[in-house]
Amino acid sequence: xxxxxxxxxxxxxxxPVLNWYxxxxxxGQAEIASRCxxxxxGAYRIEVAQLPRTSDxxxxxxxxxxxxxxxxxxxxxxxxxxxxxxxxxxxLAPVPEDLGARVSEGVVxxxxxxxxxxxxxxxxxxxxxxxxxxYRKSVAEAAGLDMxxxxxxxxLIKAAQDQQKILSAQxxxxxxxxxxxxxxxESAGGHIIAENSTDPDKxxxxxxxxxxxxxxxxxxDVAVSGAVGPAFSTSSExxxxxxxxSADAGFMVNWPFVWAQAQTKVEAGTLDQSVPDDYGxxxxxxxxxxxxxxPPLGGINLGVSAFSxxxxxxxxxxxxxxxxxxxxxxxxxxxxxxSSAAVYDDPEVQKVYPMADTIRDSLAAAAPRPLTPYYSExxxxxxxxxxxxxxxxxxxxxxxxxxxxxxxxxxxxx
Length: 414
Fold this sequence. Notes:
Layout: H1 2-11, E1 17-22, H2 28-39, E2 45-50, H3 55-67, E3 75-79, H4 83-88, H5 97-104, H6 109-114, E4 116-117, E5 120-121, E6 124-130, E7 132-136, H7 137-143, H8 153-163, E8 166-168, H9 175-187, E9 193-195, E10 204-205, H10 210-223, H11 237-244, E11 249-254, H12 257-268, H13 274-277, E12 279-282, E13 297-304, H14 311-321, H15 324-334, H16 347-352, H17 356-365, H18 375-385, H19 396-408
Parallel strand pairs: 1-2, 1-3, 8-11
Antiparallel strand pairs: 3-13, 4-5, 6-13, 7-11, 7-12, 9-10
Helix pairs in contact: 7-8, 9-10, 18-19
């Protein structure tokens, strides 16, 4: 439908239709599309089309259609790990220099970094995301933890064990496992990719490094601590959030959606107000006490297709979509944090998200996952070798390093 509308608008000389392929949300992007259509004063009309729910499914659909030079795609909501691959393949229209300067102003560093490839801005930062350390205030107090100060994973393990409470993280074989490992390695002062390159044969991995080994040690210690919930190896973000609402909850690393979820359940009468009243939040746990943590970075950047017949209008639309006003709306209604630092000062944002300042601080310290055109090979190898987390050992990093290197060189398949 979107494709036929675009063709009709272009061929008939009517209002150009911009097709925006969005990740699933709670209707926020469709509303922003309507707002920007109206604000364009007839210059364009934005139609939305929904991509698959999973990140893998979104990438697969976009890559296939862009490889076929599909002209029906104008704007794309891209997971923060997608831009290098699409840019390297020539699938993204160049960002106009003047627009790039405007949309980069005031954007949190990690979000801007994720939209950059080969020293050029290749996508437009839209919304960012990060994981916080969530804790039950009553449990932290009973364990004697001062949550106004940084805490380590080792401290959390001991506190959860002593209080017989759950320490929740995401241990299933999925992208969330790579998110966790990357945050651990970055927090230990290392990188999954130690030396990057557009040539896969020249990429040098940093899994089998001191930081990589320390990260593997923490992952294993959490998994075998006895403090994680049942079926930890299949635990997702949603499962962790549900565990944190239970009487056994202690500590959890997760995205800010857990706050909105709890409030929704309170309003529906399925969760007592005393539960979220006991929620506390802090920056992501440290791997080592003397090294600041590097929290996970998530979110969405906007890409404009190189095969769009209206690339100039599409870039005009991205500036509207990512305005502070629309980012504020999107954060308050759909629970997705803004990439613009100024949004966190908005009184309504501060009201809806009491932890807004902590989210902004976390985004300032957050580290992207590896920015590489070969990300699917990297994360695929990690998910294969680091799952289940309880099996991670001293040799895991070397095995993963060898596997991913062989895959990048075409010597092995995942």
